[in-house]
Design goal:
heterodimer; A: mainly alpha; Helix Hairpins; two-stranded antiparallel sheet; 16 helices; B: mainly alpha; Cytochrome Bc1 Complex, Chain D, domain 2; 7 helices; 4 strands; electron transport (chain A)
């Protein structure tokens, strides 16, 4: 081996020549080929890969949409309709992109839910989790700005309402809003900068996703039992086992996505956004996209404007410190008999907020939103910290391999019961 | 299928149901429930009834177009309705459009061409309002996408005129429509008598027929890609079903030695 060259094991001479100088093939083999992965993943572990694919779909369709879109207040709406009518397969590009945003949030919400249920945020994966929360925030900013681009009624009024939230900041609030708008109302400068940032952000997300995955490959994946692999008997090489399993989830995801795009392309959108933006006509109900509704409900549940804004941002910011709020050393909810029902109620509260966020701000939705908001925070700030001390977790399995191996394994018959029932 | 898989599917379904609930939940409250009409384009195998859409175009041209623009459509698009090149040229040539400036710097009028956009009835919004008692007739290019209920709403609105119930006083120049938000609409009942539009294909132009035809036409205008989209969707779903079966079989095979 020549000095300074990487010791490559690739057989093909051309690839080997490259790999000796830039060991990307060795790296891919290590990180996605032989990478030791817990053998007991369920299908919830598909959703990280699905989110990655979704990001790539959004970037690919977005680049081609941008070639045909005009970010100007007098032309934006018409340019989008031109994409729908006159650009070859433009309707497909746009509907995939618009519904892709919804799919992205469905996938990421399930991915986050998976992390919450199986305790993936706990040591040693705190930073991995926090990078995930950063991605979630960037996604929300990107989706919000993307929804403004078609310049329909909901684009304009959604942008007006959301940017106005910053006016709640004491002293400098109104100045911040003027600065965000680039003027004294949502107008052409706002549309221009939102387009620019909407194109930039996905690449920032891509960068943070890289860090998210890099951190994952240091700690390794969590698993449904929430216990660490103790040796090779507990893991499988990523390929072919999880490439095969991810493929199943990926096709199911594509099928679901296709049904939305081809048969219900406007189901998750709002009819008002097919009316060109008009600063002089306010829609009867201004509502954000469905994936923002839980946070919108929290905003409206608080009678004070600044308080509402703080609570809304706080509801996501709290996730950053979740690894330290949850004091239990047990990761998976399967072994937490008390935390599990409290967490299920939290999930219900989240869905209730999603529902109430789409309703007009009147009774009984306001009171329901307040109760759900209170529980949302109570769960993180009081219940989780206390449970770590009060709860007596179920006994953990000795290893991943023992409860997973069924029939034919080297285990005595008594060890084949489900992990929950194991003493 | 394992219990875990079922759980995963249940969560996915729950999230979508939540999203779905949030969607229709946003419809403006208080409106009357729309009467259901069957349209040929309903469902995953739906297609446009071109004869009906052509008649609907006649209704638009002779009635709606007096006040409503369709500025996103061009005359050439009418070919997709099954009209011949000559017919489209003749329809376009029927209108005078402003073009220019010419070499002398003057704007001039000429006969329309298939490449021209549908001519708008008014020069601008102010002119439209001035001619309509202050109300602005909305552009109809994407109207079925821009209203909750789509074609069902258009149909309901056009048949929804009636005398105001006792105790309701209409504002000056307004009409009572039970499906319009707030019930007071500035548009006079546009299709009020059988035979208002002369059909050339022998269909009896009842009010109900005209309303169905114009709803068909407006749906086509808003979503001209719909037939192609749904046909592609059917193929996609079939393809992913087969591919999913294969992927699952491969997964089972790969994992056979693990379980």
């Amino acid at each position: 081996m020549a000095s300074g060259l990487h010791n490559s094991e690739v057989a093909n001479p051309v690839l080997r020549w490259i790999d000796q100088r830039l060991p990307v093939i060795t790296m891919m083999q290590k990180e996605y080929g032989t990478f030791p992965t817990p053998r007991n993943f369920n299908y919830f572990w598909n959703f990280g890969a699905l989110a990655m694919v979704n990001l790539l779909i959004m970037i690919a369709t977005g680049i081609f949409l941008a070639m045909n879109y005009t970010p100007h207040v007098t032309m934006a709406f018409d340019s989008v309709e031109r994409i729908m009518r006159d650009v070859n397969y433009g309707w497909l590009l746009r509907y995939v992109h618009a519904n892709g945003a919804s799919m992205f949030f469905i996938v990421v919400y399930i991915h986050i839910w998976r992390g919450l249920y199986y305790g993936s945020y706990k040591a040693p994966r705190e930073l991995l989790w926090m990078l995930g929360v950063v991605i979630f925030l960037l996604m929300m900013a990107t989706a919000f700005m993307g929804y403004v681009l078609p310049w329909g009624q909901m684009s304009f009024w959604g942008a007006t309402v959301i940017t106005n939230l910053f006016s709640a900041v004491p002293l400098v609030g109104p100045d911040i809003v003027t600065w965000l708008w680039g003027g004294f109302s949502v107008d052409n400068p706002t549309l221009n900068r939102f387009f620019s940032l909407h194109y930039l952000m996905p690449f920032v997300i891509f960068g943070v996703v890289f860090l998210h995955v890099a951190a994952l490959h240091i700690t390794g994946s969590n698993n449904p039992l929430g216990i660490d692999p103790k040796g090779p008997q507990d893991t499988l090489p990523f390929h072919p086992y999880y490439t095969a399993k991810d493929s199943v989830g990926l096709v199911a995801y594509f099928a679901f996505f296709a049904v939305l795009v081809f048969f219900f392309p406007n189901l998750l959108g709002h009819a008002d956004n097919y009316i060109p933006a008009n600063p002089l006509v306010t829609p009867a109900h201004i509502v954000p996209e469905w994936y923002f509704l839980p946070f919108y409900a929290i905003l409206r549940a608080v009678p004070d404007k600044l308080g509402g804004v703080v609570m809304m941002f706080g509801s996501i910011a709290i996730l950053f410190v979740l690894p330290w709020l949850d004091t239990s050393p047990v990761r998976s909810m399967r072994f937490r008999p008390l935390a599990r029902p409290f967490f299920i109620v939290w999930c219900v509260a989240f869905l209730v907020l999603l529902y109430c966020g789409g309703k007009p701000p009147e009774e009984p939705y306001v009171t329901i939103s307040r109760v759900a908001t209170a529980y949302y925070f109570l769960y993180f700030l009081v219940i989780l910290p206390l449970l770590g001390r009060l709860e007596r977790p179920l006994p953990l399995p000795e290893s991943i391999a023992r409860p997973v191996l069924r029939g034919g394994g080297p285990l005595p018959a008594g060890a084949m019961s489900k992990p929950m029932e194991k003493a | 299928m394992s219990v875990k898989t079922l759980k995963a599917l249940a969560v996915a379904a729950g999230l979508l149901a939540g999203a779905g609930l949030a969607g229709p939940a946003r419809a403006a409250g208080g409106a009357e429930h729309l009467p259901h009409v069957n349209f040929s384009f309903d469902g995953p195998f739906g297609h446009f009834d071109l004869a009906s859409a052509q008649r609907g175009f006649l209704v638009y041209k002779q009635v709606c177009a007096n006040c409503h623009s369709m500025r996103l459509l061009s005359y050439r698009n009418l070919r997709e309705l099954g009209l011949s090149d000559e017919q489209v040229r003749a329809i376009a040539a029927d209108v005078q459009v402003v073009d220019g400036p010419n070499d002398e710097g003057e704007m001039f009028e000429r006969a329309g061409r298939p490449s021209d956009r549908f001519r708008s009835p008014f020069a601008n919004e102010k002119a439209a309002r001035a001619a309509n008692n202050g109300a602005l007739p909305p552009d109809l290019s994407v109207i079925t996408k821009a209203r909750e209920g789509g074609a069902q709403y258009i149909h309901a609105l056009l048949v929804g005129y009636e005398d105001p119930p006792a105790g309701v006083t209409l504002m000056d120049g307004m009409y009572y429509n039970k499906y319009f938000a707030g019930h007071q609409i500035a548009m006079a009942p546009p299709l009020s008598g059988d035979g208002q539009v002369e059909y050339t294909d022998g269909t009896n132009p009842t009010v109900d027929q005209m309303v169905r035809d114009v709803s068909q036409f407006l749906t086509w205008a808003a979503e001209p890609e719909m037939e192609q989209r749904k046909a592609m969707g059917v193929k996609m779903v079939l393809f992913f079903t087969v591919l999913g079966g294969l992927a699952y079989a491969v997964k089972r095979k790969v994992w056979a030695d693990v379980h």
